[in-house]
Structure formats: structure tokens, C-alpha cells
Amino acid sequence: IYQIEYYQEAIFIMKEQVIELIAAAADLDMETVTGILEIPPRADMGDYAFPCFQLAKSLHKAPPLIAADIAEKINKTDIIDKLEVKGAYLNFFLKKEMLVKTMVENASIPNFGTSTLGNGKTICIDYSSPNVAKNFHVGHLRTTIIGNSLYKIYSKLGYQVERINHLGDWGTQFGKLIVAYKAWGNKEAVEKDGVAELMRLYVKFHEEAEKDDSLNDQARDWFTQMEKGNEEALSIWQWFVDISLKEYKGTYALLGMEFDHYLGESFYRDKTADVVKRLQDANLLRESQGAQIVDLEEYNMAPCLIMKKDGSSIYATRDLAAIFYRKATWNFDKCLYVTGQEQKLHFAQVFKVVELLGNEWAKDSLVHIPYGLVSLEGAKLSTRSGNIIYAEDILLEAIDKVKQIILTKNPDLEDKDETAKMVGVGAIIFHDLYNQRIKDVSFKWDKVLNFDGETGPYVQYTYCRCASILRTVSYNENAAIDYNQLLDEEAISLLKEINRFPQVVLDAAEKYEPSVVARFAMDVAQAFSRFYNACRVNVEDESTRNARVKLVSLTKTTLRDALDLLGIRCPEQM
Ligand code: ARG
Fold first, then answer.
1. How far away, in angstroms, is 130 Cα from ligand 1 center?
2. What is the DSSP string of 302-315?
3. Does residue 383 surpass a pLDDT of 70?
């Protein structure tokens, strides 16, 4: 049943026609018929069934007689193959040829899968957002990949999407870093080793502060200086930000992903006072041990800390400021936050506070999108010093491994480096998005890169097969397609899969779940394999060949568009 409901668009057109036929024959209105018409559980019971129990009362006739009556009066149009009266049911068998024609035409619409649903609406997506002076780790890789895919999916549905990188670039840790840099660092080392050196200094600070508590006071002072706008403090901090951002941008470049806005936490430092004022005016602030909080006990949550004893703002305060800024700037329909599950409470608190300030929209518009953990036990990664794992290294290693495979299996391939990049990075992205985002991901190279398994490379390889067929088989693009040549079970199944695409994009958006698209891409690739094994494309007969090539071409476009929604590019050869 679900399967039939899924290949929506094409079947929808035919369903409408069936409804019209019944309505005319039974003298009923379309809504009534729509309410009664069923999809039978088995294919041998037809594509649609019209049960006549309900009509028995008003017509004072036995249901089987009513069914027979309607059958008699139905106009045999070219969409119906066969009508069958089975007890109280009138079963409709659609003409396979018509079904195939409808599905091919449907999937051939330019930009199949796009929609105007979101026109005029804006979605903000807050994702990636690494912490300055810290490594871009695998968790950040997940939020980046998921956020980017949601951006693609919502754009496909016609939404205006603002991609926002809410860098962790403000907070007391920068006071510590300045102290450490001044005591144990130097310019050359930071320029040379970047984030790795900043992390070393940060660790050093904590070691030393164990022995000497006055370092903590110095750190607090430096952060206060930053908040006050002290030039020296800010210029060192800005340098740390620039150094870090340069590295993060290297990772984004490898992924082929971009942002519309880098608006880190520091951007809101002059906007938190307004948040505090709003809360005061609404009489929501309470004092607790010298700090200012919003009590959320009524909602079974810990209080939301707004201002520390020393008057400095915190993570939550800056998130509140960011929400008001984004609402005022983009008037978003929704603002999505892609972070690990451990921030669930933080966002629940922040969203609640926005709502308590009299903003009803907070309830539906602010959405936290959590994801599971990545475990790297099986990965055997080569790490830089200190066993710290950088997402960039994983990407580079994937690219390198693919390059080795290409060198042994297809040494004559042109553009080996570019292809290795598309496949290596694609493999990581696909692996990340193939399971529901909330599930934990365990990382093993042979699972990520297996060309025969349920992997990115497998889907890309299927795409390349399609491309190769289109390059080598001769066909006439302009000849009318004989749909009778596509009645094989495998061809119909493949068409049904392809025709799910628009619904798949909608489902993925509604659930904030790129895995729906990844699964779809895999289903299409597998259906294509079955079709390709059962139906030779390069056959003598021109009309068969043309029709089958059309199916190859639709598969190719669909795979490309689905992978694009995941952020994966397709090489033409691999
Ligand atoms: N910087 C944070 C982290 O790495 C993520 C920020 C998420 N976005 C936000 N608006 N709080 O965990």
C-alpha cells in the first residue's frame, strides 16, 4: 500500500482520472468517490478498488450489484486495462503502458523534484559553528554535513535559506588563551601550527592554573578587557579568530560547502544588554547567588543563566540575542539549529525564554535538530600530535585511499585527483547521512569505501554506469518513445522509484532528515542494477533501445539530483 502511495505524482494524475470515471458512472461527486476509493493490498487485486458497501443504503441495492452496475457504465478510456467485479468491490487495473507513459513524462519535467512550496519563506540554518582555537572535530563534521543537506533540501522546495555559522568566538576561554600566549607562546609558533598551537597553549594554561590560581584571575581580567573593548586584548583575540577561521575554511573547501554568514558569538556582544533589558521589563529575571537567571521550574527545566556575577554574558545570552537579530533581519519562518544531542536542554531553555517574552512564534519556529555521536574506534586514523582528531585529516585520508584504488583499478582515468576528491569526500558524506541522524555513527574505512556496499561510491558508480551507457550507445533523443518497450517488471519498478523523488524531498524536509534522500538514492541505484541486469540496453531494435536509454537518462538525472541534495558531486567516470 505504502509503496503505491509513494510514487505519488504520476499515480496521482491517474488516480484523478479513475475518480472522474467513477463519479460520472455512479453519478457521485468527486469528493465522495475520493473518500471511498481504496488501494488494494495486492497487485492481483488491481491498482484501485472501489468498495460499494456504503452506497447500498441509499441505493437500496446489494453492493455486488452496484459494483456491476458501475462497471457497466464506466467509459473504457485508454487508462484502464481491465475492470473486475469481486464481491462488493469494483477493481481497476490500469493500463501498464499508460502508467509507464505517465511516469516517464512526469520524471522528465525539467527540475523534477523542485517545488514552489517555500516561495516567499525564509529558513535560517545555524550549523557547523566550530569553536575558535579548538580543532574542527568529527562532531562538527556531522553538523556541517547535515546542515548543508538541509540547506539544499529546503532550497529545492523554494525556500530562501540563510546558512549561518555561529562560530564559538567569544567567552572566558579567550582570556585564558591570551594569558597563556603571553606567558608561553610566540607569534611564529602560532602562525606555523595554527589551531594545534592554540590548543597546546590552552592545555598548558590549565596545567599551570592548577598550581597557580592567580592565572585564573588574570584570565578573567583579560576577558573583561575584551568585553570593554581594550584594543590589545581585541587584536590578539581577532588574530586567534583569523588563524582558526583560515583552517576551518580549508575544511569547508574540501567539503565543497559554504556559508552565507559568519556571525559568531562575538557579533552579539553589544546586543546582550538589550536581551537583559527585555527580560527585566518582562519581570523575568531573578537573582541567584549573585547571577541573573530565568526560572524555568514551572516547565521542568533548570534555570536559564543569563548573566554571571561579574556582569558578563554567557552562551545562552548570546543565543537569545542571535534569535532576535535573525528574526529582525530575515523574519524567518523557521530557524533550525543542528548540534549534538548534549545541547538539547540548552536550546529548550533558550526557546522557552523567547516564548516567555511574549513571542508565540518561538513554539513552531525554533527547532533544535540533534544528531548522534561518531565513534572512530574502527577507523584506525593517523592523528596529528596529541591524538587529537581533525575532520580535515579524515577527509584527506579518504581522498588518498580512493586515489590508491583508482591507481590500481583504473590507472588511465583522467582527472584522478578531482575524481578521488569527489568520491572520497562523497563517501564520508554519504556514510554520515545514510542512517537517521539521531543514530550514532561508527566509522570503519571498509564500510565507508566499499564500492559494492550501501555506500556513496556505489551510488556514484551507478551514476557513472549510466553516463557510460549514454556515451557509448547510439540513440535518437528526439524519437517518440514507445512505452510498450518499458513494460518489464524491472523497468516499471525503476520508474516507480524515480517517481518518488518529489515526495522524498518533502518528507526529508518535514522530518529534517537527509537520510530519507540518501536511502532514496540507494533505492534508485539498486533498482537500476536490477533493470540493467534484466534488460539489455544496447539491443538491435531501435525503438527498444531508445526507450531503455530514456530510462537510463532519467536514472542518471535523478541520481545526480539526489546526491546533490546530500552535498555530493558525481564524476562522469571513476
Ligand atoms: N559552538 C558550538 C559547539 O561547537 C555550537 C553552536 C551552535 N549554535 C548555537 N547557536 N548555539 O558546540
1. 7
2. --EEEE-TTS-B-H
3. no
